[in-house]
Amino acid sequence: MIAFDYNTFHAKEKGLIIQSFFDGRNSHAQLFYGPSGNGKFTVAMAYVALLLCEQPSEKGACMTCASCKQMAKLTHPDVHFIFPTYIDKSNDLDGLSEEFIKTWREAVMANPYLSFGDWKRFINAEQKTMQIRVKEAAYINEKLSYKSFYGGYKVVFIWLPELLNTETANKLLKNIEEPEDKTVIIMVSERYGLLLPTITSRMQSVYFPRLTEEEVRKALEAKGVGNPEVLAQLAEGNLSDALELAAQSDSLTELATYFTLWMRVSYSVNMPEIIKLSEDLSKKSRAFTIAFLQFSLQTIRQAVLSNFRTSTENPIFANTDFKMVNFSKIINPENAWLIMNELDSAVADIERTCSVKIVMTDLSIRVHYLLKRGIIPKPLDIL
Ligand SMILES: [Zn+2]
User: Of 163, 182, 210, which closes a domain?
Assistant: First the structure.
């Protein structure tokens, strides 16, 4: 994870980062941002390893010196990792990163494409308030007042600075503006729009774009994951989501089973079954629900196309009683376009962490009307 060639993504950005390091143009405060699950975290790690390496080269850190060995274990004494956590008074946890560092290392080692949602699930904190709290600022400022262990750079690595509360951010500003000698602050953000302008205006920012379907597919193939093509399509550039789906064995068959059931209960507007299905989905991971909606989008797209050519059955549905030839009879270009719009906004709602149960129940009713009547009636018409 600490080598620039850990993955093949973002070659241009990596080149610029290495170049600016050797030209001495690298800022002491850098922000790496872009959508989740796209590998920017591994680039940030490789950059920190390069900063601290005893024998850096144009390829990056050497991987063999004492500093690199500690970086590889995420235990380098001059790197302070800060990330969102929760307060748990009953277990004497004040919500400092230091209290969670062992678990965080495990999570990152297991999945270097970890997203905020993945981290929350890893520590069972889906219902908890996750933040980088003001006590953390005092801790950081104290750590930075010490001499560095190796005599080189001291690094503060803030993962998900969008969860810094305003007070914490204000207390850190001095260090961002006038850092101590040989101090570097690196931030890795998934949600640039939520960052405080007082922070972004003081950082040198590098944007890391969403991965392409091709990049995700190749990465899955390299890991020997089955069905890389379908998974890459479903994950929409999020490698973490793709790997999670791959880890849930038979997840594609499960998606097909859910889709078959969902279309049946939505078509017949069977409310108890719609609510039950929405509840079932709300107990799954966010990645699964999003994959389910993407899978639904693709299947509806295929249904439209199969109206214009000889219908082909999708092998993923082999274990269900779904038949494309029948389904395509209730799909036409008009209602398909409207349903796909509804699915798109449902994905956006779930990504904004709206309740899966409410989104899915509402969506099922809308899909019912679009399948049956081709329009969603206004509330008065329904009554
Ligand atoms: Zn090294």
Answer: 210
Q: Which domain does 375 fall in, by range?
A: 248-382
Task: Please give the distance, rounded to the nearest whole angstrom, from the Cα atom of residue 47 to the centre of ligand 1.
Answer: 12
Output phi, psi for 199, to 5 deg: -85, -55
Q: What distance in angstroms lies between residue 141's CA and the mean position of ligand 1's atoms? A: 27
Instruction: Decide if 232 is inside a domain.
Output: no
CA gap 228, 219 in Å, rounded: 9
pLDDT tens per residue across span 23-69: 999 899 999 999 999 999 999 999 999 999 999 999 999 999 999 99
- Do 182 and 283 reside in the same domain of the chain? no
pTM of the model: 0.80
- Do 180 and 267 reside in the same domain of the chain? no
Query: 113 near 41, Cβ under 8 Å?
Result: yes
Alpha-carbon separation of residue 1 from 8, 10, 41, 76, 277 (angstroms): 12, 14, 9, 14, 39
Residue 5 CA to ligand 1 centre (angstroms): 15
